[in-house]
Amino acid sequence: MSVFTAVAPETLSCWLGRYAIGRLVDLQGISAGVQNSNFFVTTTLGRYVLTLFEAIPRAELPYFLHLMAHLARHGLPVPGPIADRDNEYLGTLSERPAALVMRLSGKSEMAPTALHCERVGAMLAGLHLAGLSYGRRQDNPRGTAWRTAAAARVRPFLPADEQALLDAELAFQAAVDYASLPQGVIHADLFRDNVLWDGDYIGGVIDFYFAGHDALLFDVAVTVNDWCTTADGELDPQRTAALLAAYHAERPFTDAERANWPALLRAAALRFWLSRAEDFHLPKPGEMVLVKPPAEYRDILRLRIAAPPPLPL
Ligand SMILES: Nc1ncnc2c1ncn2[C@@H]1O[C@H](COP(=O)(O)OP(=O)(O)O)[C@@H](O)[C@H]1O
Ligand SMILES: N[C@@H](CCOP(=O)(O)O)C(=O)O
User: Fold this and answer.
1) Which domains does the chain show, CATH number per domain?
2) ipTM attached to this prediction
3) Taking every annotated instance into account, which residue ranges of this chain make up the domain Aminoglycoside phosphotransferase (predicted)?
4) Distances (CA, A) of 61 to 55, 123, 130, 158, 209
């Protein structure tokens, strides 16, 4: 995240009176991330993360907060949201929808090994299986409809060769048979910076604010494109095989998923090329704002088109 909206300690101290988590000791803005304003909050009772939601419509937020509670209840290492004294997860602070979740320990691993990838694959399958019993439903907010709209917004800023790449990829993706793929709750942003490691074990999975209902394979593709890609954008065979085999052991891939794997790797690359291009060309105003390079995912998309990787199982 970034900090788009400042929060004064006095304001937060007063707001925390709505909760049963003690008094404010420390407040720190967090510079990582791109979507919301996030803060580490320490109270006399514990350590929490405060999120002020900048762009997500308020009506969509209960889906994410209850999903985190659901997954935590199913034993996944997901931060539980904190209910206020009225038993509500969602409040309002600095004129923004706001929520507190537990702060989990551990740190991100940006140079993962095959063992890390194996654990992430198993965890992602667990998340998909636990998601099957989640009672609420909301579409993937960065699914096909968003992709078309985002492409129209960023296209005028792109040079001619990138416009051609974008047009061709949108046409290719429009022909993919998503209905043939198993669907469910997906995290949709399971990048290395959204997993906290406690030694070799996953201590936390965070940032569920892009979650939604979509093809489970899209989530696998997003995850593989980030966790298993080398510095030059190619897939590392050992890490890819480790992640996919661990996932497959918990939720076996279907024939339709095998057939559509190269297309979904491309869809996942397109999604992050578009969101990064939009953040770059049409930035939101803010105090500390992180913009990730769009070229990285443009190039991953080009590579996945040039050499479609088979599902190695
Ligand atoms: N529950 C948590 N426990 C520990 N650290 C967290 C937690 N939630 C967020 N963070 C920290 O905050 C950073 C940004 O959070 P993130 O959810 O990725 O932001 P955004 O909401 O903008 O997507 C993470 O990289 C991590 O360092
Ligand atoms: N993972 C995405 C952007 C979302 O950022 P996050 O820090 O909020 O997860 C990317 O790399 O483009």
Assistant:
1) 9-102 (3.30.200.20), 114-306 (3.90.1200.10)
2) 0.90
3) 27-253
4) 11, 24, 20, 33, 8
